[in-house]
TrEMBL record:
Alphabetized GO MF terms: calcium ion binding
UniProt protein name: Galectin-3-binding protein A
Lineage per the UniProt record: Eukaryota, Metazoa, Cnidaria, Anthozoa, Hexacorallia
Domain Apple: 10-90
Entry's Gene Ontology cellular component terms: membrane
Originating organism: Stylophora pistillata (Smooth cauliflower coral)
SMART domains in alphabetical order: EGF (SM00181), EGF_CA (SM00179), SR (SM00202)
The keyword Signal is annotated on this UniProt entry: yes
Xref: InterPro entries: EGF, EGF-like_Ca-bd_dom, EGF-type_Asp/Asn_hydroxyl_site, EGF_Ca-bd_CS, Fibrinogen-like_C, NELL2-like_EGF, Pan_app, SRCR
Designated gene of the protein: lgals3bpa
PROSITE patterns: ASX_HYDROXYL, EGF_2, EGF_3, EGF_CA, PAN, SRCR_1, SRCR_2
Length: 292
């Protein structure tokens, strides 16, 4: 008799197929008793937009409405001798298309909807908190596109956001330097001076935001030293000095990981992590010796 009921539901318009002695476990949101030999379970599922599929408990005529399909959660589709599983079919509301039917992830939507899932905005509840958010899914990656919404990434307003699998990267725009979370213009004409030495040699200090500070010697080469010396009016540098050769300065350490091509007019025009973004100590203060 139960196989006959399943067969009737398959051909009754709206249901796609039934699978005998299988069930979707862990996604039932409503359970109720039905009249044996009727299609009450099917009718209840068709009437409820949240219903994605349903299980029928045979012999005791219990209906279990599910808010997922076996395609969405194949790991939860299990063998159960006393049940059969029914798919809702073409009348099913796509997962993530309404606030009341959020998906847990973009990947789940892609699994549920197959080729019908295209990149766009979907309702998600990634923590099952009951609070859905509208987020953009990149279906090529099966992942949230955090870059599509400023509230979902922490990139600086002068940075570009690049979506990656499970996360995102921030990169400062051309003309700016930093880690992407903080970006500063690279063409700022920050004054510099030499201290702790003589007229043409000493510890390099930069004046920014009303305060003199030092430069870290990470990647401190003759290229960077040449830029410093030319900015100060010398023809170039004879040496790039590391390791607080001319004594240790005091806070702040304004610049770290400075990369100059060698032709920049100002040290602050070179690429660096960003103002006061550093992992140095004053034992790493950079210095230069300039040509007379």
């Amino acid at each position: 008799m139960f196989r006959d009921i399943a067969s009737q539901q398959c051909g009754a318009g709206g249901d796609l197929y039934s699978i005998y002695q299988m069930m979707l476990k862990g996604h039932t949101y409503k359970t109720f008793k039905t009249t044996p030999g009727t299609l009450e379970c099917r009718e209840a599922c068709l009437a409820d937009f949240r219903c994605q599929s349903y299980n029928v408990v045979m012999f005791i005529a219990i209906c279990e409405l599910n808010n997922r399909t076996k395609e969405a959660r194949p790991e939860d589709f299990v063998k159960e001798e006393d049940r059969y599983y029914m798919a809702k079919g073409p009348k099913r509301v796509p997962l993530g298309s309404t606030r009341e039917l959020p998906a847990e992830s973009c990947k789940e939507i892609k699994a549920s909807e197959g080729g019908q899932a295209v990149s766009g905005y979907y309702w998600l509840d990634t923590t099952r908190s009951g609070n859905s958010i509208l987020a953009r899914c990149d279906m090529k990656m099966g992942d949230i596109d955090e870059c599509a919404m400023s509230a979902m990434n922490t990139c600086h307003r002068k940075a570009s956001c690049i979506n990656t699998q499970g996360s995102y990267n921030c990169t400062c725009n051309p003309g700016y330097t930093g880690d992407g979370l903080t970006c500063a213009a690279t063409n700022e004409d920050a004054p510099i001076r030499l201290t702790g030495g003589g007229a043409n040699y000493g510890r390099v200090e930069v004046y920014y935001n009303g305060t003199w500070g030092t430069v870290c010697d990470d990647h401190w080469t003759i290229n960077e030293a040449n830029v410093v010396c030319r900015q100060l009016g010398f023809s170039g540098a004879s040496q790039a000095k590391c390791c607080a050769e001319y004594g240790q300065g005091s806070d702040p350490i304004w610049m770290d990981d400075v990369y100059c091509q060698g032709g920049e007019a100002k040290l602050s025009h070179c690429t660096f992590l960003g103002w006061k973004i550093e992992n140095c100590r004053h034992t790493e203060d950079a210095g230069v010796a300039c040509n007379h």
